[in-house]
Amino acid sequence: MTAMTASDAADLPAPDPRPVVEARLGAAGQRYTRSRAALIEVLAASDAPLTVDEIVARDDQLALSTAYRNLVVFESCGVVHRIVTADEHARYELDEELTERHHHHLVCSRCGTVRDFTVPDTLEDELDRALVRVARSFGFDAQHHRLDLVGRCSSCR
User: Fold this and answer.
1) What whole-number distance in Å separates Cα of residue 66 and Cα of residue 116?
2) pTM for the predicted model, two decimal places
């Protein structure tokens, strides 16, 4: 079995994130507004995590201040995941439960580019088992994992 790349995953039909987003926002006493829906649409259509500037550039109806404010709400509700890189901007992506695609990241320590990647299921299973053992050895109850490989991209090498 070979690893699925982000472009392979992009060929699969994307699940509708709306029900999960609405439920998570509702649990926090928040509403799923038109501007929040537009923000979710931009993130759902992207094949990589985006900066706030990149999000706003993809939808001219989104204001920068609104995007920042809503991303804070989304992050606190578990709708988005923020990836902090070496550059000055965090990048955002939908939580994996909304995309139904578990993946990892290659993070460039020089330019901040973030690229998604997946590994074969057998390797993912081995990784899960190893991480559970590590967590248990510290008395920690792991719920899931995120793996970021930090280094230099081909452009910065």
Assistant:
1) 26
2) 0.79
Q: How far is CA 153 from the centre of its chain?
A: 19
Q: Could you write out the DSSP letters of every residue in 45-63?
A: H-SS-B-HHHHHHT-TT--
Q: Is domain 6-151 annotated with CATH 1.10.10.10?
A: yes
CA 128 – CA 137 distance, rounded (Å): 14
pLDDT in tens, the chain (157 residues): 344 444 444 455 667 888 999 999 999 999 999 999 999 999 999 988 999 999 999 998 999 999 999 999 999 999 999 998 876 779 999 998 888 788 899 999 888 889 989 899 999 999 999 999 999 999 999 888 888 899 999 999 9
Type of residue numbered 80:
V
Distance CA 79, CA 72 (A): 10
